[in-house]
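Worked example (supplementary).
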Amino acid sequence: MTITFRSETFRDDFTFRNSLTNIRRFPFPFDRDEYMYSVNMEPHIRGKADSVFENLIDVDEHYVAEMQDRAMVLKEDPLRCQALPHMMAAQWDVLELLMEHQAQDYPEHFTLEKNGDRWRWINRPMGIDDTFTFGDPSTLSYPPMEYITRQAQGDFCIVDQRDNNLWMDAGMVTTQADWSLDFDIGMNFMEWHGPVPLAHQIGVFDRALKFLLNLQQGKPTRRLNWTMTVNPRLDTSPENYHKWGPDRQTVTPENVGNKMHLRVELQSLWRLPRSNAILFVIRCYLISLDELVTVPKWGRRLPRVLKSLPPEIVDYKGLTRNRPIMIDWLAKYDDGAPTSAGIYPD
Amino acid sequence: MLVQGIKSRPEYKGLDIDPHAKRHLFVLEGEGAAAFADQVELKGTDFLAKSEILYLAAGAAPKAYDVALSALSPDVFWQAPTLQPLLFRLRACLEQARMGTRLYIAGTEGFIGQIMQVALEFGIDFNSIHTEHRGSTARRVQCVHCKGITDNVTTSPFACTHCGLPLLVRDHYSRRLGAFQGVNIDAEEPGTAPAPEEMFP
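After joint prediction of all chains, the assembly is encoded as:
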């Protein structure tokens, strides 16, 4: 299937929109009418056709525009992509994994030819055709992780495993929900999750860590996480908080449907073969409330979820200011009818 | 609001002399000298002959801890006028350090963090370093926006000494940077920052 890539922006004039088909495949994160933290992990296996789970590394209509936005972020702030020196083997693991998946599942757009260690990579949407030696960083225009993650949607963290813990030792992070790779690099699992409220106390991170330490190669796992963002802005970094923070004041009952976006992260975790590190993919999907309510089940459920949130989560996700406006606006889409279980549209 | 009990916040468990170490390297600042003296009181004087002390008096200079430390006759006592030469000397010590050397750090959090940074560069496991927090609770804070570091921050919010933004001081701590994280407190409504409150005296 050939994807038609949109020409759009995630900053300034914010021309980002989802096509009708793309709305239907949005990974709506709520499988019931309320929300609380949980270790909501499931095997990352192929799911329904025309869903984001159809392929394990999903490429969609926003691919080219997202890669352009990433290039802009990196020009402003090169520290969004960093790797500690011991992570080179893991960087090559990541390059291989992403090239293989993209080439296998989207052959019209990507081709990978291997001739021993001599590889040829063709990325048609971005006009790239490079031949390089696998394992020799001097044959690529960037270090291997940066090279391939400038050509793959989502943020990427490579997590090293040692001392019965996981360590955030490399990453490409330009579409993050308000956390700083530059600050967190080198931290262990508990440390980088330090600022998250409630979840530590109910043991979520202890269980998640135990689970991930035993992650097996060839058996990736996934979960969904979410927050909300004013305007379809990918780069909501703490570095730029003073630039995007004022957006939160611009939401009114008249423009909330267009301005407020549900931001969903499809997080997938992959054991890497050479390094035994774990690749943590944080793929961000955005949908405006206007687009979201075109699916009646989601329009009913979202206001119910927003009403059920504990105050700590409202605060942590930055929803304090605009939650009442959203709930009021969404009320007309909730007729009180029961909703079906699960995340998919009826 | 300051979320308390953040897991990245370092714990300082005390100097606690390791009886099996072949060599003890103490890096002390200000009131940290008293932590060392307490160990002598507690553990006796045997370890002194295998001890090297690098000392920075900083704000505690009037208390003349240097005289007391020197009088204990450790194998080496060396005093730095400021932090920069102390770090230079520390690197030289670590270059030459042998198997069985134990590193101890005592002083303010900002000092411990900066010594720890050097130790990490030398590949020392941070879990193996004995630390004790003494003296002021002032913080070393990195501005997440401009990346500038401000030492001895006692209030939250405070004005970043580099870019001027009023920053909320979080409990989130980076060992690699040896600093807490500062985030613009009035980003959503510029000009509405509350008055600084003394939080880290």
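Two points are worth noting when inspecting this output. The mean pLDDT of chain A is 95. The longest strand of chain A covers residues 260-271.
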